[in-house]
Amino acid sequence: MATVSVSLSTDDSAQPVIARLEDFDPRSGSGAERLLFNHRPWVLALCLLLTLVLGWQALAIQLTASFDKTIPSRHPYIANFQEQRAQLAGGGNALRIAVAARQGNIFDKDYLETLRLLNDELFLMPGVDRPFMKSLWTSNTRWVAVTEEGLDGDTVITDRYDGSPEALAELRANIERSGEIGQLVAGDFKSSIIYVPLLEADPQTGQALDYAALSQRIEALRSKYDSDRVQLHVVGFAKVMGDLIDGVRQVMGFFALALLICGGVLYAYTRCLRSTAIVVACSLIAVAWQLGLLQLLGYALDPYSVLVPFLVFAIGMSHGAQKMNGILQDVGRGTHRVVAARYTFRRLFVAGLTALLCDAVGFAVLALIDIRVIQDLAANASIGVAVLIFTNLVLLPVLLSYVGVSPKAAQRSLKQEQSEQLTGGWAWLASFTQAKPAALALSIGAVLLVGSVALATRLQVGDLDAGAPELRADSRYNRDNAYLVQSYAASTDILTVMATTPDDQCTRYDTLSQVDALAWRLQQLPGVEGTQSLAGLARLGMVGFNEGNFKWYELIANDQALGGVQTIAPRELLNKACSFLTLQVFLRDHKAQTLERVLGEAESFIAAQPAGGDVRFLLAAGSAGIEAATNSVVKQAMREMLYWVYGAVVLLCWLTFRSWRATVVAVLPLVLTSMLCEALMVMLGMGVKVATLPVIALGVGIGVDYALYVLAVMLQRLRAGDNVDQAYRAALRFTGRVVLLTGLTLALAVSTWFFSPIKFQADMGILLAFMFLWNMVGALVLLPALARWLLKPATAAQAQVLPAGQAA
Fold this sequence. Notes:
58% helix; cell membrane; elongated; 25 helices; 4 domains; transmembrane; 808 residues
């Protein structure tokens, strides 16, 4: 791959017009060309067999989601979380189902009966971590009070409950002294929560939890119990994943829309139905092969990677259009369709291969990020690009060598390509090789670069919106989340700090005083709404042990007195061995700034603790702790990813052109596009997270395609003795038109994602459309402006571009 073979078809002497196949020497060309085109029936037979086998496999591909795949498994926070997962209630993956009374309040016999039936159905649902499930009807929801005889307590709904007015009055009293108001019961008594922690695998079958099936069961329960008296509000990671999977099924319609857009625009440009159909077919075959290979290799699609097949199809259309354009021009000149296919293979195979390798690199570097869902996306996309190398660089020209192209379309394409004068917008583009327009373009580019870099410094990592930013703000999930935020003091964004001690040491004064000190420091921070821990419960216990006198709201240095609290503590605060404690920190939101502030204070406190003590604090669990770990990995990976992708693109360009000047000309426009994309994210209020991080790498890998096709032709013409202006005009006639066509087409196709019910897919569509357009502008405006100052015929001679017609 050290050289580029490009023959400009306007030079009739470069490749002779051969009208009869008998006059063509089949022994000419590279070994790869001879292997493929001298054995075309075998190539088609092999492709047909692969299409049938992999197409059949593709039908079995599954759409799944996994909680563990969305978290960075090797991050210290997650390692601590996994180590202590068995001790945690829900472990950050839980559903909260608020059952709201549409009329009156929860102290209603019919409401409580509905709550009991729903509680029982949820308890028996597969995948529920039943010992930690909690509601008004579960036995772990208790009250404790100080009486004349000392401490007293019982379950909130006792065995004596019968629905009578007396029983309802007793229930109200029990709730008021349970401490669950604002957590399990709304402050206005109009709703209560069923807390449903989930297991990652079904203990009966051993299979991973099926979030789609779980969401369907929840929706079935919603339909069953929603009435004019009761309304359900459901939040939690599992419900987000279920809604995403439902949304993805709707998104599949965008694939058909992308096919129509790409095919329609390509046909409008070529006016050749048969070749357009072949290009579309080859791109669809690539998608079928990709999905089939994913199934064979044990991968599945998830909400984050489901759009990758769309990208593979779009990339295939882009490269296919270049191959079809070359064949159209050669056939228009009178060349036999088989010879035209071989000429096009010679001219564009290496440039196309380099472009696809850059695409693959843009995807593959994502595997460096320690988040399984992104690594799966990288594998998914890399496999798709790998099959494109065969389907669109090999199968497409072989198929066109059989079916040919429309003679009228071929003559029209040749007439456009042979036109000596570029008019209208094309003449304007050609002017950017002149000194003044080039200097103006580079000056504007420099201003945009400086401005975008300044704006990109404000780019934040993590979610910037409340609720589930993966979904639309007006989605039912986010409306449900808003209801819980409004009705309950306890936030759904919980950071859990874990503490371990020797057995039976968790209630010692030395242990609880450290937990209490950390809780106090965190409570002073903006964004922290409250904390819950065994230390806080021990303070209340001291009040209870002393006739309810709040002067005793302290931790006393008496281990025996503090040990009495263990019998009344809820299970989520400690384990049975009294060797594990949790400090639950309720946050106002899960925005990046809030998480950084709270985790920074917690880390500072932990670092100040003496080494070798009995108490060991561990960060972090809970939904907020897991998100903080994810943000940390994304922040670190963002720049590393760009270094790797740009390093790989630079290396591939240098290996292809063997010229640092040509490499600079190809890569600098990409840098501007990357910075503009980050600035756009700031302007649109997007943070860098699992959903948006891949777009930045993909835009670089895919965007270099345009520059490679334009630059390859320019270098060949410069080597032949043309000046920069002549070389660029030739590139515009030969590949520039198709670059403009595919850039606009791809941007239009992915921009349809804006209408997706899934917000992060809509965000991906906006960012990719922006990057497609700006990379196209870079290839057609900034590239010639840079070439004006950097590329010269002597420079091109050093690029080692092979003469036309020789092996690449």
